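To: structure subgroup
Subject: Chain for Friday's discussion

All,

I'm putting the inputs and outputs inline so they're searchable in the archive.
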Amino acid sequence: MVVRICTGHVGTTAGDGATDRQSVRSVLKLMSVRAFLISTLFAVAIAGCAKEPEDYRPDIDPEERQLGAEQHPLLLAEFGGSYDAPEALYLKGLGEKVAVPANLAGQCTFTLVNSDVVNAFAVPGCYIYVTRGLMGIVNSEAELASVLAHEIGHIVADHGERQQKRSLWRQLGVLAVGLVTGSEALTRLAGNAAGYFTLRYSRNQEYESDDLGIRYLTQAGYDPNAASDMLAALARNEQYMTRTRGQDDAKSIPEWARTHPLTENRIERSREAAAATGAGNLPENERAFLREVDGLLYGDDPAQGFVMGRRFAHPVMRIGFVAPQGFTLTNSPQAILIDGPDGLRGEFGGGRMPPGGLDDYAAAVVDQMLRGAPAQAGQPQTSRSNGIPLLILPVVVGTQQGDVQITVAAYDAGSGSAYHFVMASQPAEATAAALRELFLSFHLLTPQQVAALRPRRIRVLSAGRGDTAQSLAGGMASDHPLEHFLMLNGRSADQPLRPGELVKIVAFAGARP
């Protein structure tokens, strides 16, 4: 998250009777009213989307390209932005190589996303995204190529188009908010581009893309067994997170990172598909890949702050907060995106404190969010959160589908800095309690806490004589050094290291491994 400057004043208010409405509906309920009509409208279209197994002719029409181009910056803004480093150029070159056998040479856009969440996804127009988190856990060029080949498989099989039609009712509901209010911020709270494009694929769609991906991977000159190796790397990472972070933190992985169902059956199926190709002695290019990822940022980018499960801390701004149980935090360049139970959704951001103090700052946040939409501001409440002045401002936004309850919590962090939560919620007692817990968790970091927030990078070492997994894991910047080392390198604890073998460790930036 980066600081956003907030300016302006409270927007226009709703007409007479806005404060008398008792059944305030959430933004998500606004979306659901169209579900039946839209699903009925597209029932026939969905049924006719399937392709015959042999009919895989990529067809990216101009409308898809335009849609992908329009959503590309929005997706990047939400997911962490692009990671502009040599690794991004490497990814693009590899993507182009894999696109050739799919007859998509020069037609796709490959982007390395600046996020530590392990995921990859594709959207219409052949826009393919791989996070640096995923790039950090695979161990060969062929494994990374298999990720790209799999996503190209989704494009060729038109899975993105089918998912869009299934979710179009949801997107139309979201767009209705934006059209009625003219507010991008409200649209973002109602439902974001991520939810539209990155719905989970079905098991059959994953199988179909696995098969196509293995075909393209082999035709591009890589060992097809790398596909199952890549899936195994994903499984190791998921198991490591569950063991070391606990179930609650494992559940806090953003929903957009859960687009590809992963099962042991899918891994074994990929092994069988690779064997069926009959390809032998094709390279995986482990050493070339490891040289490329040496120095790759690992974990959170300090410029955006650190998300640690339900906790957020920013070493430059020197602030932090803790979300309640059941909440998910997603870092992005624009804000910290917050999702909670029962449709609770919002974001955290900041700016400069205006001369009028918290009252003017909260008014500016509301004005920037609503963009003139009809609204009724309630009575502001003042309090303190860990000694920090806090102002809570409830706002009811009127739309054609009903009222939306928005709550703004603004903080005076001193030195001219201000921060805020903007949350859309249902008027339930449990929701109100969760919001209070969230709002009262905001705090300033101590110097010791700031010093502990250090960026980490992948370092590639050449094993020496006598080196073991245990000895090299001693250089890991990790709370679970040996488990982390084994997960990162796809090794077992009793597997000996060969002299000269390249392995990855995670070290604090600037530290000598």
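Points worth raising on Friday:
The radius of gyration is 24 Å.
The first strand starts at residue 109 and ends at 113.

D.
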